[in-house]
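In response to a reviewer's request, we include the raw inputs and outputs for one of the modeled complexes. The four entities were modeled together in a single run.
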Amino acid sequence: MPDPYFFLVIFGAVAFVFPVMPLALAWLWRRFFQPPKPGAGKNATYECGVESLGEAQIQFHSHYYLYAIIFLIFDVEAIFLVPFAVAFTGLPFGAFIAILVFLLLLLEGLVWAWGKGCLSWVK
Amino acid sequence: MEALDEIKVRIEAAIPGARLEIIPNPGPANQSSLLLDHAHASTVARFLRDDPALRLDYCSNVTGVDWLERTVKKKVKVKKVVEGEEKELEETREEIFSGYLEAVYHLYSMAHKHGPLVVRLRTRDRAEGAHLPSLTPVWRSAEFQEREIYDLYGIHFDGHPDLRRILMWDEFTDHPMRKDYREPDDYEYEPTPHDDVLEKAKQHYVPRPAQDGTANIAAQ
Amino acid sequence: MSLSTRAQHSAVEAPPGMPSRLDGELLEVSMGPQHPSTHGVFRMNVALEGEVVRRLKPVFGYLHRNHEKIGENTSYLGSMPYTDRLDYICSMSNNWGYALSVEKLAGIEVPERAEYLRVILAELTRLVNHASLLGFLLSDMGAWGTPLMYAFRERENILDLFESLSGSRMMCDYMRFGGCRCDLPPGWMERARKVVDGFPHFLDEFEQLITGNEILIARTQEVGKLSAELAISAGITGPGLRASGVNYDLRKVDGYGFYPRFKFRVPLGEHGDCYDRLMMRVLELRETLGILRQAMDDLPAGPIMNPKVKIRAFKPPVGEAYGRIEAPKGELGFYLISDGSGNPYRYRVRPPSLINLTVLEDMCLGHTVADVMVILGSIDIVMGEVDR
Amino acid sequence: MASAPPIDEGLRSELQKQGIWVTSMQELYNWGRRNSIWPLQFGLACCAIEMIATAASRYDLARFGGEVFRPSPRQADLMIVAGTVTKKMAPQIVRLYNQMPDPKYVISMGACAISGGPFKQGYNVLKGIDRYIPVDVYIPGCPPRPEALLHAFMELQRKIDGQKLTGTGKAAFLDKTVPSEFPVPAFGAHDLEPPANADVFHPPKIERH
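The model returned the following structure tokens for the whole complex.
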């Protein structure tokens, strides 16, 4: 009987080979058949056919930063909910209360941000 | 809308010192036009726009026209003393009209739904004197059209908010819609060249070796 | 922490001379000649602060094909096929505009049947243009491709009519000075009637989908507002002007081409925003269908060409004339100066699309980048006419 | 690597009857390239409307795998130059062509893109896009009917099908010596400089005998 955890090794191997194989094929193709031809024109930034003037990394309005932070919080929250959702049926009532507290805490944060006006878009 | 001469009289009454002239239009369309002088152009324009009877608030079309030097032969009856007695003589006299550039404005009224009133502005000459007062402050619709006239004809509109080339690229120096503009000869393969295309094509033909003494193509 | 601190938060004034720490710099970007929704090679240099437009300079000339210079070097008849390529979606109304101006220049009469044919074909072109606009505007707004497919299905039906009549789908070159080139082929009128009767089905489908759609309302209402005074002063014509509430339709004002004989209404808007401009086109489509039915019902028999007009060696008398028609995009005018020879001395086209773009910057300031596309789409430009 | 001799057709059909499918990498590669050409969304003038009509439901470019119009040149294989190429637009077109990844093809659609067409006497009209970039398929017409554009697609697919991956006559994009970029013309005082790209534009020499 092979080691019960052996399927993990196979799973890992397939997971590794599956993406690497096309990359290897592409590298082989580049190496033997199609030589790359980079150039100044080809690598220039594309801006609707016109030479792009000025640089793109400029200082943005701080409002975008606030929006990004609020999104990040709720994104992380969604990750925490995933294991809860998977084991939801087998959990006692206490676990349900715990996740509710977690959710309400973040909700309260959202209400505060809303009240503070971070969400209203500055025209 | 009243007749053009009535309007002319009213304008001259309202704006003293405005030198107006009616340019008759011989064609059946009978749209005669009003020639303004540079100094009073914008005041007359404002009058045309704000006058309650006219209310020409919509400048539909601004066109540039290029009039070259013209020598006009005229038959003139001249009394001449020939061998001691008076005789009526036919003499053709040449008269040279110096060239000028022109901007023609077609004005309509959206309030009274009448028009067109054709207004003309002429430059002093076709070279460095090609300056005209801009009517964009009066009618915003003239903005792009005056830029186009500046681009293609070379009339500098003084007072225009943003006088740049609109159609050609900025490094372009000529004014291509003028009658005396020669476009660059970008070589075209002409299988059967004729008259002026032949001249252009000749510079690109490999001269044919004169075999039996027949003339070379250049001398065709 | 009470909510009142919000006022202080945004009132943090930077020390004088120092850029206020909160707002960002302007990003210069060019929505350039090759852009999915600029309806051709039209470029806008936009200065963006974050997503909000602070400055917008249109750049033209990428399709400047020297239509007027070529017009001066060819005969009057020779310029007729070039007018198809001015506004290459509505070739029939361009022909009519040019033919009308030359008839005014030379004082030519047009027989009644030819005038009716011109009205029918110009209104069919209006159907094509407004249907295409609905398709393009909705794909600018994000409904990529699907409404365009429906709009082009209707367009194909009408192009079949044009092709059987004039021989070409898009470039009809059908009208001549003093009438039309050829009479209707047999069975054309029945097919035309079938297309016109089938059109309301397409229109109802569209109205059902877009009129009450709250995404569309959110994207177009209060966007790109244009006041009536600015519209008049900037020479905006066509549906864009009527959306701002100015009742100026050349078919009623000039009364050319027997339009006074047909009963039709001119829709007017109040706010002058993108939603009104969109609805102008939808309502005008309904009126156009009404005109088409009336014109088709009492199309008289008779000659389609004024026999006295010479086609080939056509030399109008010396003089000038400015003729204009209500093209689907606005007032299309032709200003011709004739010096008696076979070629016009000056051949000028008054492009509705170019002049409708005069106030593009005024409409776009303060809006986001996505709204610029909706505003440009609602103005409805075609580059062949803008750059000539 | 000498190019492998082509497979004997009789043998191939014989094996096919037995249910064995024989192909070569070149056929497989070209079959994949040919049936999924992504055109660049890039219309200049009236031909662009006819191009949209071709992509619409009646003429349906999707039957040839070409309906995915990509706005960005980075994701496009094919540039359909549809409309009049003006001198002000020419540098932009050459820059877009340079920014497209290999293998890239050009269809010159309409009389204007081929030789200036009806606007040949225009001072701002470039007399054909093949002065600056190599063109694979020309379709005459003003505008060419949608069927003509479909015919051009088939013509391009035939050309892709005939490309060889190895050996002397291999496809241009596989050959290191063939440039995949062309100099962008500059705006001069009277005309574009240079008026034509010498190593791309070979006008026919005329000797009158």
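As requested, we also summarize the result in words. The two ends of chain A are 68 Å apart (CA to CA). Chain A has one domain: 6-116.
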